Automatic annotation (TrEMBL):
This is Diacylglycerol kinase. The keyword Nucleotide-binding applies. Belongs to the bacterial diacylglycerol kinase family. GO terms for cellular component: plasma membrane. The chain crosses the membrane at residues 58-77, 98-119. It is a multi-pass membrane protein. Its EC number is 2.7.1.107. ATP binds at R11, E30, E78, E87, H88, H89, K96, D97. It comes from Cocleimonas flava. The active site is at E71 (proton acceptor). Keywords: ATP-binding, Cell inner membrane, Cell membrane, Kinase, Lipid biosynthesis, Lipid metabolism, Magnesium, Membrane, Metal-binding, Nucleotide-binding, Phospholipid biosynthesis, Phospholipid metabolism, Transferase, Transmembrane, Transmembrane helix.
């Protein structure tokens, strides 16, 4: 929105609108994102119940939110790569593989956080 002339509250309202459009588009077009949103919906009450402290609750919920953030970025990378055509290019494949790897690392982070926080 640089150079749009929007400032102050108008800028914030428009940015919120674009955010909502991005979330809706990702939810509509990306199965993995839908699954992770439902994971957040299920895991948040569990985290609030089993987390002993505010820090533990924040770690549990935050690790799933981080997974959603990485999935959003991966989906954006895939959309941009796909926008430039269907022909195979080594760099396009590499970018998509790297985005997928980032999601995998975020998943491992989520699993490790939940394991360490909840394991007796």
């Amino acid at each position: 929105m640089a150079g749009s002339g929007n400032t102050g509250i108008t800028r914030w309202i428009k940015a919120l609108g674009f955010t909502w459009l991005g979330l809706k588009a990702t939810y509509k077009h990306e199965e993995a994102f839908r699954q992770e949103v439902w994971l957040l919906a299920v895991s948040t009450p569990i985290a609030l119940w089993f987390g002993d402290s505010g820090i533990e609750k924040a770690l549990l919920i935050g690790s799933v939110l981080l997974l959603l953030i990485v999935e959003l970025l991966n989906s954006a990378i895939e959309a941009v790569v796909d926008r430039f055509g269907g022909e195979h290019h080594e760099l396009s494949g590499r970018a998509k593989d790297m985005g997928s790897a980032a999601v995998f690392v975020a998943m491992m982070n989520t699993a490790i956080v939940w394991l360490f926080v909840l394991w007796p």
